[in-house]
């Protein structure tokens, strides 16, 4: 199980919940032909989906259409339940660049049958996570460029200012449902430009001022 070093704690903790926000950029919702949500749309990935910088994303045999989705990731340092909106940012310890990998064909099939689509998001290696950045080094997390390169070509580009629900709202909202604990992660949604990845691809994810996240893609035997 992956551990993360929390800057304010000075120690490593195991990652707990991996909370993910869907449709948090209007242009991404539009490209997927989905309505813009009226409140945060939350789903979860298992912590076993995490893989670090320099790792490998494994394409499962069950899927023939796996998509990349670059995201700003929030790392919780101070836990709590029913966190007030005006106090929520104080519960953030760090940020990182991450990828929400999705078996799109499996997700679409599940949606068409009215079934849960956790499997399409939850395979091992489907949540790459870059090196953590102390929140004190990120004066405005809503003022960042976000970019994904695939084999050296730009696939996604956006701005965190375009998130429909900002970080305080996400932290406060998630805490109204789940007790947040140190080491929990919130993947905050992806801008437009999602697309398929293939065996042998090299992905490089960037957010302004953050260390890059680099992973390779390999078809699972």
How would you sum up this structure, described in words?
Helices cover 13% and strands 37% of the residues. It has 221 residues and is mainly β. The protein has a single domain (3-219), classed as Fumarylacetoacetase-like, C-terminal domain (Fumarylacetoacetate hydrolase, domain 2, Alpha-Beta Complex), CATH 3.90.850. The strands form 5 sheets. Strands 4-3-15-8-9-12 form a 6-stranded mixed beta sheet. Strands 6-18-17-13-14 form a 5-stranded mixed beta sheet, with no helix packed on it. The longest helix is centred in the middle third of the chain and has 9 residues, at 104-112. The model has no long low-confidence stretch (mean pLDDT 95).
Structure described in brief:
The protein has four helices and 18 strands. It is mainly beta and 221 residues long.
* Largest sheet features: 6 strands, mixed
Report strand order across the widest sheet: 4-3-15-8-9-12
The total count of strands amounts to 18
Supply the CATH class: Alpha Beta
Q: Treating each run of at least 4 consecutive H or I residues as one helix, how many helices?
A: 4
Number of individual domains: 1
End-to-end CA span: 23 Å
Range of strand content: 35-45%
Full CATH superfamily name: Fumarylacetoacetase-like, C-terminal domain
Structural class: mainly beta
Mean pLDDT: 95
Task: Please describe the structure with a list of short key phrases separated by commas or semicolons.
221 residues, 13% helix, mainly beta, single chain
């Amino acid at each position: 199980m992956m551990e993360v070093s929390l800057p304010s704690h000075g120690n490593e903790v195991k990652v707990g919940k991996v909370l993910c926000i869907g449709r948090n950029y209007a242009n991404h919702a539009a490209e997927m032909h989905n309505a813009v949500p009226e409140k945060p749309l939350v789903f979860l990935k298992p912590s076993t989906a995490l893989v670090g910088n320099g790792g490998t994303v494994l394409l499962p045999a069950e899927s023939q259409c796996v998509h990349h989705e670059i995201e700003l990731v929030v790392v919780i340092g101070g836990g709590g339940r029913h966190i007030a909106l005006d106090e929520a940012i104080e519960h953030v310890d760090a940020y990182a660049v991450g990828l929400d990998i999705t078996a799109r064909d499996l997700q679409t099939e599940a949606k068409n049958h009215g079934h849960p689509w956790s499997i399409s998001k939850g395979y091992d290696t489907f949540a790459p996570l870059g090196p953590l950045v102390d929140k004190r080094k990120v004066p405005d997390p809503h003022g960042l460029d976000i970019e994904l390169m695939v084999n050296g070509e730009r696939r996604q580009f956006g701005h965190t200012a375009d998130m429909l629900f900002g970080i305080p709202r996400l932290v406060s909202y998630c805490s109204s449902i789940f007790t947040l604990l140190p080491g929990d992660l919130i993947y905050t949604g992806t801008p437009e430009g999602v697309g398929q990845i293939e065996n042998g691809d090299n992905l490089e994810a960037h957010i302004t001022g953050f260390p890059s996240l680099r992973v390779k893609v390999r078809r699972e035997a």
